[in-house]
Write a structure and sequence with these properties.
Blueprint: H1 10-26, H2 52-58, H3 63-67, H4 82-86, E1 93-97, H5 103-112, E2 117-122, H6 125-142, E3 147-151, E4 164-170, H7 179-189, E5 190-203, H8 209-212, H9 215-219, H10 228-237, E6 240-248, H11 250-258, H12 261-268, E7 280-289
Parallel strand pairs: 1-2, 1-4, 2-3, 4-5
Antiparallel strand pairs: 5-7, 6-7
Helix pairs in contact: 1-6, 7-10
């Protein structure tokens, strides 16, 4: 019987998501992990799906980028490439929401260079520990000491007001039980004129209730997603401007072609004649703070 989740209890949602991602962080390899966001993680009810590199390539990363990463930084938890969206420049300060094992942070570091800074924030202690361990390899490979990781919730970022040039996030905001607060925090930490580049999952139409309540679906970055117009409204209400949203159906198509066990489980609960791609899309969101 699938485990259900009370979406009206934010702390329960947050704790269950933290527990699920702690299991992923502690796993020796993605194949050893529990249910996760992305087809490289093992489903709670099925076998291992494709590799983390295969997932990353399907959403816009190239082999040259992946080859620079510390071992274990890529856990297949991406649904887009926010570092490419952000067009990072030398000297910029970047904040990554839900940094995980440091995947996007370690890609952003060389782009901002020795005068820039990358701050990864994650609420899961095991993920922060994993990312900090990966930092030694990053320093050795890049010759840079410009990436750090902080424990904290993306609804309450441990980052000063008006201190970031860029905020990025990859398949994380949909996990938050308080998305308007996340967008307010993004606006708070950005400097005037600063910009945001987010890759996330969004809904094209509402999901059936039974899917929204599945813990596996929530941790798999589906049940927590909101409709595309809601995402735009949250960013606008937070005070951001020049908001652009680009739907990227490639992610849902990849899930189908990979035959990911988690998404097979979700698909089984969908109305007859529909597919996950009828409901879910990867969404690139860019915006900036006025000023």
């Amino acid at each position: 019987m699938p485990e259900s989740l009370n979406r009206n209890d934010p702390e329960t949602v947050r704790d269950r998501v933290r527990q699920g991602y702690a299991e992923i962080a502690r796993a020796a390899t993605p194949a050893d992990a529990g249910c996760g966001c992305g087809p490289s993680s093992r489903s709670c009810c099925g076998p291992v799906a494709p590799t983390a590199d295969a997932v990353a390539k399907s959403v816009g990363y190239n082999q040259a980028e992946l080859a620079t990463l510390p071992a274990g930084a890529n856990m297949g938890l991406s649904c887009g490439n926010p570092t490419a969206l952000a067009a990072l420049k030398p000297g910029e300060v970047v904040v990554d929401l839900g940094a995980g094992g440091g995947f996007d942070c370690f890609l952003a570091g060389p782009r901002v260079g020795p005068t820039g800074r990358v701050i990864g924030v994650d609420m899961t202690p095991d993920m922060v520990t994993k990312a900090r361990r990966n930092t030694a390899s990053y320093r050795q490979r890049s010759g840079l000491d410009n990436v750090e990781f902080r424990l904290g919730e993306i609804e309450h970022l441990p980052v000063a007001d008006n201190s970031a040039d860029v905020v990025i996030s990859n398949c994380v905001i949909n996990l938050s039980p308080d998305k308007p607060q996340v967008w307010r925090e993004i606006a708070r930490v950005l400097r005037p004129g600063g910009r945001v580049a987010v890759s996330d999952l969004a809904l094209l139409r509402p999901l059936p209730a039974e899917i929204r309540e599945l813990v596996a679906a929530w941790i798999g970055c589906v049940a927590g997603a909101v409709l595309v117009p809601e995402t735009e409204a949250y960013a606008r209400d937070a005070g951001l401007v020049d908001i652009r949203l680009e739907r990227k159906p490639e992610y849902a198509a990849a899930l189908t072609s990979f035959e990911d066990p988690l998404y097979q489980k979700i698909a089984a609960a969908l109305p007859a004649g529909t597919r996950a791609s009828d409901f879910v899309t990867s969404l690139n969101v860019t915006a900036r703070k006025a000023g």
